[in-house]
């Protein structure tokens, strides 16, 4: 192993903003802060000035550069010598910062340079390697070269986390090169491995199980994206594994069974777009498994869950046979029909057979061929129900049939419906009457609900069946406190109004008019009633665009 590392080979001063006389502001501040805290703990308030040390500059978050003399890790004071700080404490300080910052700290400190060779958290991606995709194709070669240099100069010891994302430059890397990287890094004691390769690449990297076998007993988390993984019964015992995430992984039903048979501490399992799976069996020995996510596995036909402590189940795909053993702990279920129809009806007819103790249920569908039937089965503990109609074809759906869910959930407190996308052409002829009293409304004799507090309808539009559902709630939910009808797109994650086209704004204004005419006059005074309209600043001007 080389006795010195030329960091310029894989981290250039320009890319890290390091120039003569000035260190990285963020990394230096981290080191300075760490040293200051440690010294203050020993009763020291100031760092010394040594005129014989080279000068380094530090930038605080809110102030100008602060001049500090010498190697930031080598300052001494009366009663405290940083050079005598135990190596394990120094390495711990170093391990708390991301890879990019750790490399910067190693550039300005000999002691951190030593700990760099056993840096425990290796995260390789465009950001941590200071690369810019706008450089053109050259950034790909730089990425491969920098990863290679870092691994070559690493001792291979003490690595706890490896996150390798080469999805942008996979075509430049050979299988042997990847295997060499993994062989150099994966050692006993490793806790986490995450590998990400490009989706729909012409080749799939097959991860050798023998590579993981040496760290099998210590691994706590594995996450693979577009990888071939084929474990067998002799692949090792993953006794400490707590989290597994497979996305676009080539793995068969039998191979996944071999992996699960050797795990005993698993807490979270995510299977996404693993199309070789036809049957998923979650065995009973997974006593600690609480979260199961299964999504978009196109060839999956059946799921059997026998993990006794499962609390959260998220499924996205077509309605299929789902069997559970002990579902007494299963409290939160999401069923998303993806591109397939009938998930709302499936939930009402089949869900009770494998999840009867739910507290929160989220349903999503893109198409329903039949209305929701009235059935005797009840969800006695369900408190939160969210239903999403995620396409434009639901205008003719009978929303009033959703009363089946409300009636089946006597403890329901929060009821939310996303009514679907606006159809600019469709009009409900039943709403041609002029007032609420002239509207012929369906009712359910003997219907009553005593716990529902909040009812919300997003993307409310002029629909008689939707109005009938709302009437049913406000007339029979004695505990109702808040009714909200949202006609707009509301806000995005940045807090700004989401964009609406001219036709959507026009349809939303019609919905506002219908809500005021048919619903506003029926809401009891004890209920807070809100109609959320299109934003006058962001949405209404759309009406005047050519």
TrEMBL record:
Gene3D superfamilies: 1.20.1280.50, Ribonuclease Inhibitor (3.80.10.10). InterPro entries: At1g61320/At1g61330-like, F-box-like_dom_sf, F-box_dom, LRR_At1g61320_AtMIF1, LRR_dom_sf. Pfam families: F-box, LRR_At1g61320_AtMIF1. Residues 150-535 form the At1g61320/AtMIF1 LRR domain. It comes from the Eukaryota. Residues 83-117 form the F-box domain. This is Uncharacterized protein. It comes from Oryza brachyantha.
């Amino acid at each position: 192993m080389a006795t010195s590392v030329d960091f310029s080979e894989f981290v250039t001063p320009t890319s890290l903003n390091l120039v003569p006389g000035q260190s990285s502001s963020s990394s230096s501040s981290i080191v300075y802060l760490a040293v200051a805290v440690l010294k203050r703990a020993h009763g020291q308030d100031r760092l010394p000035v040594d005129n014989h040390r080279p000068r380094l500059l530090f930038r605080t978050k809110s102030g100008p550069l602060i001049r500090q003399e010498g190697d930031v890790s080598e300052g001494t004071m009366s009663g405290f010598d940083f050079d005598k700080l135990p190596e394990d404490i120094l390495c711990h300080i170093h391990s708390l910062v991301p890879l990019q910052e750790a490399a910067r700290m190693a550039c300005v400190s000999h002691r951190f340079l030593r700990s760099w060779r056993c840096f425990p958290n290796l995260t390789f991606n465009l950001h941590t390697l200071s690369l810019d995709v706008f450089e053109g194709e050259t950034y790909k070669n730089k990425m491969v070269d920098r990863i290679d240099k870092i691994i070559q100069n690493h001792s291979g010891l003490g690595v706890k986390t490896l996150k390798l994302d080469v999805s942008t430059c996979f075509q430049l890397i050979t299988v042997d090169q990847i295997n060499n990287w993994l062989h150099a890094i994966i050692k006993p004691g490793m806790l986490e491995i995450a590998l990400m390769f490009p989706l729909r690449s012409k080749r799939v990297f097959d991860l050798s199980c023998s590579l993981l076998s040496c760290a099998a007993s210590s691994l706590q988390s594995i996450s693979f994206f577009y990888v071939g993984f084929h474990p067998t019964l002799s692949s090792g015992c993953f006794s400490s594994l707590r989290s597994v995430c497979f996305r676009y992984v080539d793995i068969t039903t039998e191979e996944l069974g071999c992996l699960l048979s050797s795990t005993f501490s698993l807490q979270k399992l995510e299977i996404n777009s693993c199309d070789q799976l036809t049957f998923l069996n979650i065995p009973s020995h997974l006593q600690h498994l609480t979260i199961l996510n299964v999504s978009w596995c196109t060839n999956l036909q059946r799921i059997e869950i026998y993990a006794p402590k499962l609390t959260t189940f998220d499924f996205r795909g077509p309605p299929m046979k789902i069997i559970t053993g002990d579902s007494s702990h299963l409290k939160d279920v999401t069923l998303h029909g993806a591109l397939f129809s009938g998930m709302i009806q499936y939930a009402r007819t089949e869900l009770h057979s494998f999840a009867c103790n739910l507290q929160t249920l989220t349903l999503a569908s893109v198409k329903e061929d039949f209305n929701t039937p009235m059935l005797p089965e009840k969800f006695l503990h369900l408190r939160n129900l969210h239903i999403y109609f995620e396409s434009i074809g639901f205008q003719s759906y009978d929303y009033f049939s959703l009363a089946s869910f409300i009636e089946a959930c006597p403890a329901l407190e929060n009821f939310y419906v996303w009514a679907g996308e606006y159809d600019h052409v469709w009009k409900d002829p039943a709403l041609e009457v002029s007032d609420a009293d002239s509207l012929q409304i369906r009712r359910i004799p003997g219907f009553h609900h005593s716990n529902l507090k909040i009812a919300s309808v997003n993307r409310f539009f002029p629909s008689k069946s939707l109005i009938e559902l709302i009437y049913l709630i406000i007339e029979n939910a004695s505990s109702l406190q808040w009714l909200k009808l949202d006609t707009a797109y509301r806000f995005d994650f940045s807090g700004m109004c989401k964009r609406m086209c001219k036709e959507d704004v026009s349809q939303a204004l019609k919905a506002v008019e219908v809500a005021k005419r048919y619903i506003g006059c029926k809401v009891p005074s004890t209920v807070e009633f809100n109609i959320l309209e299109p934003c006058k600043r962001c949405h209404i001007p759309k009406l005047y665009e050519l």
